[in-house]
Design goal:
Protein name (chains A, B): LacI family transcriptional regulator
Largest interface: A-B, 50 and 50 residues
GO molecular function (chains A, B): DNA-binding transcription factor activity; transcription cis-regulatory region binding
Number of strands of chain A: 12
InterPro entries (chains A, B): Cro/C1-type_HTH, HTH_LacI, LacI/GalR-like_sensor, Lambda_DNA-bd_dom_sf, Peripla_BP_I
Number of helices of chain A: 12
CATH architecture of the largest domain in chain A: 3-Layer(aba) Sandwich
CATH class of the largest domain in chain A: Alpha Beta
Strand order of the largest sheet of chain A: 2-1-3-4-5-11
Distance between the termini of chain A: 61 Å
Number of domains of chain A: 3
Radius of gyration of chain A: 26 Å
CATH topology of the largest domain in chain A: Rossmann fold
Strand content of chain A: 15-25%
Pfam families (chains A, B): LacI, Peripla_BP_3
Oligomer: homodimer
Order of helices and strands of chain A: HHHHEHEHEHEEHEHEHEHEEHEE
Shape of chain A: elongated
Keywords (chains A, B): DNA-binding, Transcription, Transcription regulation
Helix content of chain A: 40-55%
Amino acid sequence: MTTIKDIAKAAGVSITTVSRALNGYSDVNEKTRQKIIEIAKQLNYSPNTLARGLVMNKSKTIGLLVSGLTRESTKDNFTFEVLAGVNQYVSEVDYDMVLFSTTSTKQREKTYTQLCRERRVDGAILQGIRVDDPYLQEVVESNIPCVLIDIPIESETVGYVTTDNVLGAKKAVQHLISLGHRHIAMINGYEFAFVSEQRLKGFQEALFEAGLPFHEHLVANGAFKEERAEQEAVRLLTQHPEITAFFCASDLMALGVMKAAKTLGKRIPEEIAIIGYDDIILASYTTPPLSTIAQNKFAMGYEAAKLLIEMLEGKAQSHIKILETELKIRESTVKNHG
Amino acid sequence: MTTIKDIAKAAGVSITTVSRALNGYSDVNEKTRQKIIEIAKQLNYSPNTLARGLVMNKSKTIGLLVSGLTRESTKDNFTFEVLAGVNQYVSEVDYDMVLFSTTSTKQREKTYTQLCRERRVDGAILQGIRVDDPYLQEVVESNIPCVLIDIPIESETVGYVTTDNVLGAKKAVQHLISLGHRHIAMINGYEFAFVSEQRLKGFQEALFEAGLPFHEHLVANGAFKEERAEQEAVRLLTQHPEITAFFCASDLMALGVMKAAKTLGKRIPEEIAIIGYDDIILASYTTPPLSTIAQNKFAMGYEAAKLLIEMLEGKAQSHIKILETELKIRESTVKNHG
DNA sequence: ATAAAAATCCAAAACGTTTCGGATTTTGTT
DNA sequence: AACAAAATCCGAAACGTTTTGGATTTTTAT
């Protein structure tokens, strides 16, 4: 493995000069710089980032800390798309990304801060963390720069990216209302998710603005799980037969509701209209295809990485990035659309 | 950031002793070791892996090199599941994983070897690489330990994990034959995939053993793409109306064939039976649900990581790992199954 | 009590890079 | 020609570890 020292010897200069030549400093003659570059290429040199990181005290590496990257979680590829987005930006600016997964065999009893410091990441992106997760506490206290996805905490070292969940939910419900629905139920996620709170708010606002009453008993907790949502939908539909539409806080839960409707022999969308949230791949493949509020998860990852690295390099204007959502109308709300 | 030196000072010993105490060497008194551990905890010490990696000349980090981790590729979550599996094993043995994506903005004109050496990964896992990919050449020549997924190359430093694609394809086709189909078409992937070759072989073997003739013109190239498969299926069905069943080398292509059948007004499975390969999430959500040969992609990632790290630590028996596949019978081949 | 053996400790070098402060050479000005 | 200024180079220290080869102390055996 050739080092800077080998190059120095071959070029007949000091290692200082080699370093400065390769890093584009101006106090080295252009002729010798060319020679050094040439030799470096010949010797097939590649810099040792460990050594560099050690002396510069930064690694040009960011950590992506996700929660629940298990075999089962792959159905909902939210995590994956975010990851792909992060990866995209990171590779554009020549950083690296290392993946930390928290729940996987929790025996890894390292704290968030330890993980980051040990692996010398310059900063971290956190995805899928719950509001009550102990990690979250640490983040705010530690001084490691990080950006959160879908959790609105801001400080000197903390930023976040999210979508406008209030507006997103509102658009979904307004869509249902515009179709003539008056008794709309909602299947929400669990209480420890910030987005759940927001989407409920959007749900209420849409009803209010349309002059419709809000009924607490038409909102159920689906815990972001397909089966759970199915059960709740069955319960709601039997207890409140006036319901003609469902707004679900995730597509996965909407799938559960679709199952429930089928079990109860209700036709979609004629008897029950269903709209989800996320726009996962599955959404366009179900029968009928699922209407939903699309979040650009790839963009969320991309923007999170961008924000983090801007923060690291001290050129972040704001620590907050809020993305748009898009209403996708498919056949679970409107028959024979398109 | 506290270092080993700080601990040494606080404990009144040399840094050598601190290092050896913390790393469990036997030539340090148990009493002083306890004291050192205590102090380290108090000072909230975490080791600097950069420094350690520098001197030990290894980083306890492996690279996952994937091809085509783009926004679009998320439909087929093969990559993601492999990644989750790799991550799982890696975190069990306290390694780290850094992700390299090749196609994303190809401007990153670094070679495979450069990438690995620069980031000081101890080894790499390659997924989604085509047989004709320039990277592949490098791997065999470089001396960086690596394991390939679904490409059977073996050497001192190279291993691979794959599934038994011949047998898998055979099982799929035997299933179709057992249902009475005699005119079976195959939609294969592109020619630069090793698995395509294998699956074709399995297709032929199954026909042969059942005493059925193999017809070249019933095999089409779907390039692993949904749309392409759809077109080919339409062509085949119109040119060869005797076809009653399709074996597809991927689920994504099977989806295309399903669309084709629907367009042509053919009922599934009564008029056309379809079986895929992979068992992607979508497979169980289509109407009708898709029969397929399931590959445990998570396990592939897990085993790849395991193999690689065993190779790195010099305790790999074999450099080859071949996993089982499983026939999943759903309604695209058998009506009202279950 | 003494020598040998075992246990416990440590100084210094090494890993490959960046950077500080200054040294040397070249160029420009008069 | 002489000096100042600019351009170009370099030695040595530093980053935080591990490890080598030995030094020192304690224990054991006689």
